[in-house]
From TrEMBL:
Taxonomic source organism: Pseudomonas fluorescens
This enzyme's EC code(s): 2.1.1.144
Signal peptide as annotated in the record: none
GO biological process: methylation
Gene: tam
Protein name: Trans-aconitate methyltransferase
Domain Methyltransferase: 35-123
InterPro entries attached to this UniProt entry: Methyltransf_25 (IPR041698), SAM-dependent_MTases_sf (IPR029063), Trans_acon_MeTrfase_C (IPR023149)
Superkingdom per UniProt: Bacteria
Example GO molecular function: trans-aconitate 2-methyltransferase activity
Keywords for this protein: Methyltransferase, Transferase
PANTHER family reported in the protein's UniProt record: TRANS-ACONITATE 2-METHYLTRANSFERASE (PTHR43861:SF1), TRANS-ACONITATE 2-METHYLTRANSFERASE-RELATED (PTHR43861)
Enzyme class, UniProt record, top EC level: transferase
Length: 256
């Protein structure tokens, strides 16, 4: 997949709001070490610095473009180009922050306890994941992929997102390793200008990437036109021309 920091931050306020909500739920009062795994362009890392000003804050991401943007945004911090499931730092960390990233990483039943094992006593693992694979936005991505001339190219695109477990499953994964586990689900309703085109632009920075990356430039244009037509029916414009995008997200804060 090819991530674009520029495309991602086109909706920075909306994408950062869940990170703020996640950060506010962390009970750890102070931190010496905090790491933002899947830091993206550094918007969530910046929040960590504000919340824990005395901590040694760092970030990591698997996208070189995202790491370059994060380093430009926060040149005083250390950012590492590495995949989360290959991250070998042992810690301990007082806060491990994972905002909108673990949905791209497999084997949660192994990964989440391993991350919890990197926490210090009283430290928190804070996770937010989009829980929208069954929303029209993502169902339509799969339908357009399966019903076009690019079907063979995109046969594995949907599988790049990890299937979400249930809230009780995530609780059970983490409770043996942590003293406290909070799990909740919130649906945001983001108002996007430009009607259905705004929805398409939003997902060009995230969910559409596995579907667009394998295609030629001409195929991408055709795919996006078909997707836009389908999205226009699923997300009708409001009177002012904008559209409300329902976006469910799952939150987990596990404290050791």
């Amino acid at each position: 997949m090819t991530w674009s920091a520029k495309q991602y931050v086109a909706f920075e306020d909306e994408r950062t709001r869940p990170a703020r909500d996640l950060l506010a739920a962390i009970p750890t009062p102070a931190a010496r070490t905090a790491v933002d795994i899947g830091c993206g362009p550094g918007n969530s890392t910046e929040l960590l610095v504000q919340r824990f000003p005395d901590a040694r804050v760092s970030g990591l991401d698997s996208s070189a473009d995202m790491i370059a943007a994060a380093r430009e945004r926060l040149p005083q911090l250390r950012f590492e180009l590495v995949e989360i499931d290959k991250w070998t730092a042992e810690g301990p960390f007082d806060v491990i922050f994972a905002n909108a990233v673990l949905q791209w990483v497999p084997n949660h039943a192994t990964l989440l306890p391993a991350l919890a094992g990197k926490l210090s006593a009283g430290g928190s693992l804070a996770i937010q994941m989009p829980d929208n694979l069954n929303e029209p936005s993502h169902r339509l991505m799969r339908e357009v992929a399966a019903n076009g001339p690019w079907a063979s190219k995109l046969a594995s695109a949907a599988g790049q997102r990890t299937e979400m477990a249930s809230a009780s499953d995530y609780f059970s994964m983490l409770r043996p390793h942590c003293a406290r586990v909070d799990v909740w689900r919130t649906t945001y309703h983001h108002q996007l200008t430009g009607g259905a085109a705004g929805v398409v632009e939003w997902f060009k920075g995230s969910g559409l990437i596995p579907f667009l990356s394998p295609l030629t430039e001409e195929e991408r244009a055709q795919y996006l036109q078909q997707y836009l037509t389908a999205v226009s029916n699923a997300y009708p414009a409001l009177a002012d021309g904008s559209v409300l995008l329902p976006f469910p997200r799952l939150f987990i804060v596990a404290t050791r």
